[in-house]
C-alpha cells in the first residue's frame, strides 16, 4: 500500500506523467527526455528520481549514461488497483440497472 | 456498452462514466431519493444501508449509514450545493471511518443519450494525496467484496482450498 501511495504521488505531477508516456515508447536517456520538455537536465533528473523512488521506472548504467525505462510490474500494479475499484463501482451500477428497470416498468394501469 | 469507465484527470480529479438503459429522470431519482438509493448504493455484497437521508435541494443534507450485518459499518455525510432536476447535482461528501475524510466535491451529470442516459461523476479532491487515499479505500471495498464472494463460494462448496 505504501508503494502505491508513493506511486500515485509520483503520478500526480503532469511532467512526470508525460515522462512516463514518453518512456512507454521505449528506453530514453536524461538528455533525450529533457529535449521535448524544454527542461534542464537537472530538473528532469529530479523527476526521474521521484519516479525511480516510486518504483515506476528502472535505470541501468551504460557507460556514463543512465537510460530509463518503465517498470512494467509497477504500472501493472496501479492498473490492477484501479480495476478493482472499477469492479466495486460496477457492481453498484449493475444493481442500479435492475432498480431502473423496475422504475420504468409499465405499471399496467395504462393498459387497455 | 454499459461498461463503467473510471479515469484519473489532472492531480485531483476522478471521473467516472456509465451508460444506463433508462431515462435521465429515472437515473436522477435513483441517485437522490432515499428509498431508491437504499436498493443499490451498497458496495460489497451483504452490505445494506439502513439509514439514508437525502434532501435534494441546495443546502439539503445527505447522510448514508452502511452496515455489514455483523456489527460493522461506517457512514457518510454531505450537503447538496446545486440540484437541477433531472440533469445535474453538485454535492460535497465525506466518509466517517470514524474520523471524517477530507471533503470530496462531486458533480453528477445525467445526460440523455439515445433512449438511455449517460451518467458522469466528476469528483474533486483537495489534493493528490487525498485522492490516493480515497482510491485506496475503494480498493479495500473491492477486495472485501472479493473475499465475501470467495467465502460464499466456499460455503456453497463451489470453491475448496
Description:
The complex is a heterodimer of chains A (112) and B (161). Chain A is 65% helix and 5% strand. Chain A contains five helices and two strands, in the order ααααββα. Chain A has helices at 2-11, 14-23, 30-37, 41-53, 72-103, and strands spanning 57-59, 68-70. Chain A has a two-stranded antiparallel ribbon. Chain A starts with a helix and ends in a 9-residue tail after the last helix. Chain B has three helices and eight strands. In chain B, a hairpin with a 5-residue loop joins β4 (61-67) and β5 (73-84). In chain B, α1 packs across α2. In chain B, 25% of the residues are buried. At the A-B interface, α1 and α5 of A face β1, β2, α1, α2 and α3 of B.
What are the salient characteristics of this protein?
heterodimer, A: 112 residues, mainly alpha, two-stranded antiparallel ribbon, 5 helices, B: 161 residues, alpha+beta, 8-stranded antiparallel beta sheet, 3 helices, 42% strand
Regarding quaternary structure, what we see is: heterodimer
Give the helix/strand class of chain B. Answer: alpha+beta
Helix content of chain B: 25-40%
Number of helices of chain B: 3
C-alpha end-to-end distance of chain B: 36 Å
Given as residue ranges, the uncertain stretches of chain A (5+ residues, pLDDT < 50) are none
* N-to-C order of helices and strands of chain A: HHHHEEH
Number of strands of chain A: 2
Bin the helical content of chain A: 55-70%
